[in-house]
């Protein structure tokens, strides 16, 4: 296309050229045009394709027409510059409008990353030189400096509202009213000759009956169907026959690994499975107490039918078959041999996830749940043993983000999500108690990162309202990583497990660590020093209280 610079600066398309107010028709000729005659205007050539933002604007002279004079040269360059600016403006406007429409527009956050000089002492041993090294290594070319003080004000507001108030424990009758079916299935007493809590339940089916036909774990998850196919084949062989009746052995776990996520629970589970006296549920994390019994499969999918307690008990049938083998052996019958096999369950949500309460229990406690998971576990198993694995909550949160974030992971994105979550948590604390905010389903779903999971002491104090302190073993991932043998011996002693041979112990303690950080996540490097300082400030009062409760300053995590 060829257009006169004087009248077609805006690059009208071919079909609109005849509408140009100074040139009439696509066959315009400078020599014949009454406006342009004799002026030898420079023609501008441009591709018919859509211009890109950084496209090169090229002006070429028409060899059939010559430039007359230095004035025309200067005028052509000026017009080309104006034209380029107009195109860039239009393209940028189009990008901004499209980005805003589709949620793709990157709007700078009011919270900035980077070194801050307002109070370097708040960095917990992070010096400004360390921060400079970090940014030089990252080669960040955007300045995210300076809004640490405003985030610090949010944290100060949260800290000023913290109160650790002992919760009122519900009585047994209140619990019975909430879960009558569960209380009708689980007895109040268990077999005396089994270390693990087990009992016999009458089975009314026959050899053609499928005992797992309605099990929700088998129905909703394909990966568990193989397990249940095997259980169906061996089920009838493990029934106990007495006076023309059939009985099946039912068991609950002897111990629970209740938390926390991204704190090494998978590694502990994998090592404990290797002990000859330990069995686990058919599924590592059934999440029955916290989610499945309320009908939650995935939080984003809403509610399904509630999983009855029988579905949960089915998960321990493999272990129950082995325990029954011990109890029915001739040696056991003759000498009254005790079964020493114990069952464990390792849902890392058990300690902290009470999000479903608001949908099922009346709210009569100003936003605080009237019943918690531990109330029901204690009602059935007052002697249960609990294992908790913790780590520095700052590092736990970053690991949690790397594991669960699906796309666009970066240290900058993590910082943004931390800032937003702190703001939401502060808003809740202005109106409600600490416990109400920690167990607030709406807040927990709204926060981009799970800040609340790292408030270990809040959950621990609530568990201590129903369980004695000597029933809970609390470990640190940092200690476990540095000395696996020592922490595993602590676990064996806590669970009263028998001695191991050197070969068995080596197998348990020298196996590689499980569920370590993925290579693609490692490549992102550590979180920004500013983010780390913010989180240290946020978690500090909770860590201080935790260290006081446990009489152990290691839970201050000052050296990590």
Automatic annotation (TrEMBL):
Transmembrane domains' residue ranges: 78-97
Keywords noted in UniProt: Membrane, Transferase, Transmembrane, Transmembrane helix
SUPFAM superfamilies registered for this protein in UniProt: P-loop containing nucleoside triphosphate hydrolases (SSF52540)
GO molecular function, one term: N-acetylgalactosamine 4-sulfate 6-O-sulfotransferase activity
GO biological process, one term: hexose biosynthetic process
Sulfotransferase domain: residues covered: 253-517
Family per record: Belongs to the sulfotransferase 1 family.
PANTHER family: CARBOHYDRATE SULFOTRANSFERASE 15
Protein name: Sulfotransferase
Name of encoding gene: Chst15
